[in-house]
């Protein structure tokens, strides 16, 4: 097996490291990380040191070429004073980047759990109109 094939396996959906990030360009998450650095008058090495990762790994995350450490959001939120809105945007960016979304069901009541599971099963079957209607309702516009 070639070195390239092994690396492909390490960073593919089948590999233990998670989603294949090699083909992604500059990511929304990367933009958010860079904004945090700018807002805190930092350079890449400052943020990388605080997050306990190498500068090259941070750069690779920003450019969609490496997987996100599981504790990245937790560390960001602990280190940087971010608004709840910024935290939510970062969590969304991480979900999009990684290709998955996680919902903590243990913090929801039974009806909320059932709705979450129904959503997960049925979302791909909804039309654009249905999605717009549900989104409007959830955003308080209907």
Automatic annotation (TrEMBL):
| Gene3D superfamilies reported for this sequence | lambda repressor-like DNA-binding domains (1.10.260.40)
Which segments constitute the HTH cro/C1-type domain? 50-87
The region annotated as signal peptide is none
Listed GO MF terms:
DNA binding
- InterPro entries recorded for this chain? Cro/C1-type_HTH, Lambda_DNA-bd_dom_sf
Checking Pfam families in the record gives:
HTH_19
Its protein name is Helix-turn-helix domain-containing protein
This chain's source organism reads Leptotrichia rugosa
Taxonomic path: Bacteria, Fusobacteriati, Fusobacteriota, Fusobacteriia, Fusobacteriales
């Amino acid at each position: 097996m070639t070195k390239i094939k092994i690396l492909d396996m390490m960073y593919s959906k089948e590999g233990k490291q998670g989603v294949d990030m090699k083909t992604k360009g500059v990511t929304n998450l990367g933009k958010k990380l860079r904004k945090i650095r700018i807002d805190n008058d930092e350079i890449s090495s400052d943020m990388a040191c605080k997050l306990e990762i190498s500068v090259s790994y941070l750069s690779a995350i920003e450019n969609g070429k490496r997987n996100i450490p599981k504790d990245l959001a937790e560390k960001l939120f602990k280190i940087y004073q971010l608004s709840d809105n910024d935290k939510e945007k970062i969590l969304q960016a991480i979900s999009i980047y990684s290709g998955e979304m996680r919902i903590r069901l243990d913090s929801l009541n039974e009806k909320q759990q059932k709705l979450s599971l129904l959503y997960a099963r049925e979302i791909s079957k909804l039309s654009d109109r249905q999605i717009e209607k549900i989104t409007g309702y959830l955003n308080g516009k209907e």
